Structures are given as structure tokens and as C-alpha cells.
């Protein structure tokens, strides 16, 4: 009787193990088929874009003072005097020290050539020194561009290198964050148009890559000579854009 019980138990264990092995093989086969199906998913790769025109909020003016003297010290002293006068005048219209920066300061000799009577050769000699001091203003007073230039030239600025309008980094970031969703929706719209004739539908997203480097600053107004600008200087809207690359999973409808 004990032998019969043992044999029955052994047979039951064998049958159970056999069922478990068969079930495991079926599960693995099912997972393999699903994996193969995933590996052969069809996709459509689309680029979506979104653009917004915004008013600039930053004015940049680069101007300077050039002086020439018989000595470097004399030229530098005159230059510094004129620049101090300009800075003090700019502060009366709200320009702060934080909005001012020196672009460059350069001192170099001025030469003249003349013919040596004895040798007949031309020689150069120093006749003075030129000092060029260039200052940059970056301010949000964009409507005051003409008056700032007038004030600077009245106080001795004899070089206006550039006048430009731009958008501050914080405003660019804010606008771009708002454009990402629009760019993704644009990509989806393009994908739906592309797959409609193929009788496909979107079932998911494989990847999204965001490119938010799109920004086109307004062209700069440049002039190297002194001028008085009593006429107004106007800024223009500037484009900020975002593009996204979206890969959609698609399948038959």
C-alpha cells in the first residue's frame, strides 16, 4: 500500500512539472511574438514648428569718444573728461552704472610720413597719440534711443558704432516655453495629413526632440561718425521660434 501511494505521488509531481514547463513555453512564445511585433512597429517622423513675433524690450547703444593729443597722457586726460561728462548726463535720464560697460579702451600713436632730404627715403615719425574709448549701454528704455544718442553726442561722443533692439533672455525663455506645445500640435497635424492617404492612424509616440534655438534679432543700425539724431528711431517686432522632431507610432486603421 505504501508503494502504491508513493507511485501515485511521483506520477502527480511529474504531470504537474510537465504542465508547468508547457505553460512557461507558451508564455515565452507569446512574449516573443509581442517583442517581434514591437520591433517592427511602423513610425512616421515629423518636424513641427511654432513662431511668435514679439516686441523687443532691450536697447543696446555702443558709442565712444576719440581724442588726439601730442602726448598719450594729454589725449587720455581729454578723453576721460569727455566720457565723464557723457556718463553724468546719461544718469540724469535714468541710465544706471549697471547698464553701462566699457567695450574697449585703446591708445595708439599717430604717425606722419615725410621724405628725408638727405637720403630721399620716406620716414615715419610719431606726431601724437589717439585714444579711443568705447562705451556700451544696455537698457529697457527702448523708446529713448534718439534722446540718449543726442545727449551723448552733445556731451562729446564722436562715434556711434551701433544701435540695436533685442529681446531679453528671460522674455525669450518665457515665449519659447509657450511655443513648445504649439510646435508639438503642429507636428501631430502634419503626421495626420501624411498618413491619411495610407489608411494609418497614430497609436503612440516614440520620441520627441525639442529645438528652441530659434531667435532672429533685429538688424543693427550702424554709423561710425558722430551724428545728432533728432528724428525718432523705431524698433520692430522680432520672431522667436521653436521646432520639435516627433516620431509617432502608427498602425492600420
Structure description:
- This protein is of the alpha+beta class and 253 residues long.
- It has two domains: 42-55 and 170-220 and 234-252, Translation Initiation Factor IF3 (2-Layer Sandwich); 58-166, 2-Layer Sandwich (Alpha-Beta Plaits).
- It is built from four helices and seven strands; from the N terminus they run H-E-E-H-E-E-H-E-H-E-E.
- The protein has a four-stranded antiparallel β-sheet with strand order 3-4-2-5. The chain has a three-stranded antiparallel β-sheet with strand order 1-7-6.
- Strand 3 and strand 4 form a beta hairpin.
- Helix 2 (72-91) runs antiparallel to helix 3 (145-154).
- The longest helix is centred in the first third of the chain and has 38 residues, at 2-39.
- The chain is elongated and about 95 Å long.
- It starts with a helix and ends with a strand.
Amino acid at each position: 500500500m505504501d508503494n502504491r501511494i508513493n507511485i501515485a505521488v511521483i506520477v502527480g509531481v511529474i504531470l504537474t512539472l510537465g504542465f508547468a514547463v508547457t505553460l512557461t513555453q507558451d508564455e515565452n512564445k507569446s512574449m516573443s511574438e509581442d517583442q517581434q511585433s514591437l520591433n517592427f512597429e511602423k513610425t512616421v517622423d515629423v518636424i513641427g514648428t511654432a513662431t511668435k513675433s514679439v516686441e523687443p524690450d532691450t536697447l543696446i547703444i555702443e558709442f565712444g569718444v576719440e581724442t588726439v593729443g601730442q602726448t598719450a597722457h594729454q589725449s587720455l586726460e581729454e578723453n576721460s573728461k569727455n566720457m565723464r561728462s557723457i556718463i553724468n548726463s546719461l544718469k540724469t535720464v535714468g541710465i544706471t552704472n549697471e547698464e553701462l560697460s566699457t567695450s574697449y579702451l585703446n591708445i595708439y600713436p599717430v604717425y606722419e610720413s615725410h621724405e628725408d632730404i638727405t637720403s630721399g627715403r620716406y620716414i615715419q615719425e610719431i606726431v601724437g597719440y589717439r585714444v579711443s574709448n568705447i562705451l556700451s549701454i544696455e537698457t529697457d528704455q527702448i523708446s529713448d534711443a534718439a534722446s540718449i544718442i543726442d545727449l551723448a553726442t552733445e556731451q562729446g561722443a564722436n562715434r556711434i558704432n551701433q544701435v540695436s533692439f533685442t529681446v531679453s533672455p528671460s522674455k525669450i525663455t518665457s515665449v519659447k516655453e509657450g511655443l513648445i506645445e504649439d510646435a508639438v500640435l503642429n507636428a501631430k497635424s502634419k503626421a495626420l495629413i501624411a498618413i491619411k492617404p495610407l489608411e494609418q492612424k497614430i497609436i503612440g509616440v516614440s520620441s520627441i526632440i525639442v529645438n528652441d534655438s530659434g531667435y532672429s534679432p533685429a538688424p543693427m543700425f550702424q554709423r561710425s561718425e558722430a551724428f545728432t539724431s533728432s528724428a525718432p528711431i523705431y524698433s520692430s517686432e522680432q520672431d522667436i521660434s521653436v521646432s520639435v522632431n516627433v516620431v509617432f507610432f502608427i498602425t492600420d486603421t
